[in-house]
Design goal:
Structural class: alpha/beta
Radius of gyration: 22 Å
Oligomer: single chain
Helix content: 25-40%
């Protein structure tokens, strides 16, 4: 009987300790590599969340767009940054994901990243279709920019096999290849102006390739995460006209299992602190609740949906 009472007391104490830990809402958020924009942006969101939700604590982890989706899916983290095109592939179970990522929900879009297809001005490449038989340089396989490159070629009836050569590496390597004439076309996803493109343009005349409406519509059939934007004239040296391109949103995702009230408070707090986020990543400045609520093809978390409906953004 005495042993039973001791076990009961210990059991109650353990349950209370567990409940206290759970109530503290210890969250993990996957961002990007240190040195990039996602990691400090995650730190800013950490501060906002910990202030908005009493007792909450958040740990910011490094990551990347595709691995963050997998991390949220598997419970490695409750929150993470994603690129909408990759996240959309994840919830569909398309490559490079192995099965549907059905525990990934949309919280908020944050800022737009532009797909750049840049060609040497003397290469004869005026559209992505002209890249056939040329040397292309892009990111490592599995990165969002590399995925978008394959899609961009596809809507022109091309693939990597149609190129004379395809190189996969970092931005610095790609710029060096074009400067030296070892490649003619460079693709990447980033904000405008891109420092790597500016670096290239300081040594070689370049052309920023346009994606007309019919190609954009074809890309949206491949992946609803695509959107279109204008790279304004003068963004790069000798760019004398606006150029329409494609791109995708950097957005915040969360485990669909995260409590509705928690995600509601996070979403509301982010909307109230856009200025603070914009001080970390300039592209966030001017973000509206309507922008945050943009449908990128990933199901809304019920907590985020509740806030957007109250704010009349949905």
């Amino acid at each position: 009987m005495k042993a039973f009472r001791i076990a009961t007391v210990l059991g109650i104490a353990f349950a209370a300790a567990f409940a206290g830990t759970a109530g503290a809402q210890q969250l993990k958020m996957m961002t990007g590599p240190q040195g990039g924009s996602w990691y400090p942006l995650g730190g800013a969101i950490q501060g906002i969340v910990e202030k908005a939700i009493p007792g909450a604590s958040m740990q910011v982890l490094p990551g990347a767009g595709i691995s963050n989706v997998v991390g949220v899916q598997t419970g490695k983290a409750e929150l993470g940054f994603g690129n909408a095109v990759s996240s959309y592939d994840g919830v569909r179970g398309a490559e490079p994901f192995k099965g549907k990522q059905d525990n990934v929900c949309q919280v908020a879009t944050l800022y737009f990243q532009y797909f750049h297809a840049v060609a040497l001005a003397d290469s004869g490449v005026k559209t992505m279709g002209d890249a056939k038989g040329k040397t292309l340089t892009t990111q490592q396989k599995g990165n969002t920019g590399e995925q978008m490159t394959r899609d961009a070629l596809q809507v022109y009836g091309l693939n990597y096999g149609a190129m004379s050569k395809v190189n996969h590496g970092n931005y610095t390597d790609s710029v060096s290849q074009l400067k030296d004439g070892h490649a003619q076309v460079f693709t990447l996803i980033t904000t405008v102006p891109a420092s790597s493109v500016m670096d290239l343009a300081s040594a070689r005349d370049i052309r920023v390739i346009e994606f007309p409406n019919d190609k954009f519509q074809a890309l949206q059939k491949i992946n609803r995460g695509y959107d279109k934007r204008i790279i304004k004239a003068g963004s790069y040296p000798k760019q004398d006209r606006d150029v329409q391109t494609i791109g995708t949103w950097t957005h915040l995702i969360a485990s669909c299992k995260l409590p509705e009230d928690t995600v509601y408070k996070i979403t509301k707090a982010l909307a109230a602190n856009v200025e603070n986020l914009g001080n970390v990543v300039a592209a966030v400045k001017g973000l509206t609740v309507k922008d945050m609520a943009a449908d990128v093809g990933v199901p809304y978390h019920p907590g985020a949906r509740k806030y957007y409906q109250e704010a009349k953004a949905l």
